[in-house]
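Protein modeling request. Please complete all fields; requests missing the sequence field cannot be processed.
Requester role: graduate student
Desired output: 3D structure, token encoding
Chains: 1
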Amino acid sequence: MAHSINYDILLHVIENTEDIRTALVLTSTCQHLRQEGPKLILRRPICINSNAMALSLINFLSGGEYESQRFQYLRDITLSTALLPRQAFLYAVHLESLTILGAEWLFWDAEPALYQAIAGMRSLRHLVLRGVDRKACDLLRTLVAPLSTVVLDFCPDFAEGLWDILEDTERPSYHPTRLLVNFAPSLEELEICMFDFSSRRTGSPTVRSAVEYSKLRRLHIHDEPTILSTPYIQTFPNLTHLHITSDNYDNQPSTYIELRGHRITNLATNTLLAYETDTTLWPHLREFEGYVVDLYLLGLLSHIPHLKLRDCAANHDLHMLQDVLLFVHPIQLDFEAHLLAFDAVVHNLAAALRTDQASSIVNLSILLRLSEDDREVDFGSVMGDLEVSMAALNLQHFKLTCWDFGLSPTDCSDMDDEALMASIGLPPPPPRAPRPLAPWTVAERTLEEYDLEGLATRLLESNPSLQLLELSIELPRRRGSRIATLLADGVRSVRCETRVECLDRY
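Delivered output (506 residues):
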């Protein structure tokens, strides 16, 4: 019994210690731990970032009396600088997750037998490929595993990427809806990065797929410059969550015209698809997250209950907000403004909230940022515009957060440094010599004088349906924050307090 307890304790240490070397030393102390310890070690994620580590892992897997069993304990491997030999993939019959970083050059001179070994793995459920090239695409076409999640990053490691060398006639076969057809019955989540489908000569080719990915629920698209929404709508009919971040941030008039033309193209093709199929497009879509311009470009015709929208560095982004709300009629809107001028953001947001398209909003969350470009803004006057718009809504939940990101001409970055270092568990930086404080700006003065409790009271009067109210405004020069909340006391009273700590941005 004593030996059994000791073994249990040592196995617990092997399983939970963060130092892999300690775990390996313990497994070499006796035959029992040598047999049972590797089962626990190899079930944790393993990252191979050098040829030496790859060789060490192979020696560990194939050495000793129990070598025939160790491969089967592998569950999660990340390869960044070296591939494992063919036998590792043949014998790792329970490997569930495989991440290959830099596939473009890791596959450069790989033998065909290695591809065949990876392609024949039926245990894989999660696959991440970064630096996707032709060979990686060929692997995807032959892989037989019923993958549930796939991440494809087409950002090239070399100067010339896949999209620079493809012929126009080849491009349709590299669209994700065709490239991943083997996984159509099982795929649940897909993430795509740097997917440049359009041709510089002929634009975006037409893509049609007869296969539906009926289980796919989540789609993430990053940095795809010209998104054609129709192929995704056709192929992923049961999508529930859509997350897009693009690079359509240019503020030039010509770019805005191009973006509007792209939206019209998507609207036209989506309208035609809805007419031909006599169905609601993406009827199960519950949430969209991304920039306003991204949702604008998609030209969606379906209701989306939850929108998580952010502004970008282009003023046209805000003018698109009303068009975005035209078809989707959200119930919950989370809006974050980080990059544009405070008064322009509030003005355009207020204008959008006054439209009939916004009348469906029940839950509203707004995060605003004041920067050095907003120093001459009258905070109270600008907020009055937003308050008027909100009076017409029938809100149940409302949350407002305002951050101060440089209103003061006096450098307060040392306070930001201290908050950031504290958030990651590091000691504070050494104190700096005191600096003379500059006079308060118009924005600082009006922010300091703003009656937050009065705003909360007026919002409750104009929105009798409000059940949750949280207003948080960071005071100038990192002096804390003023917070107003609705109390659950049955008489709808407001509690207003000032906290010394600044709002958590990290």
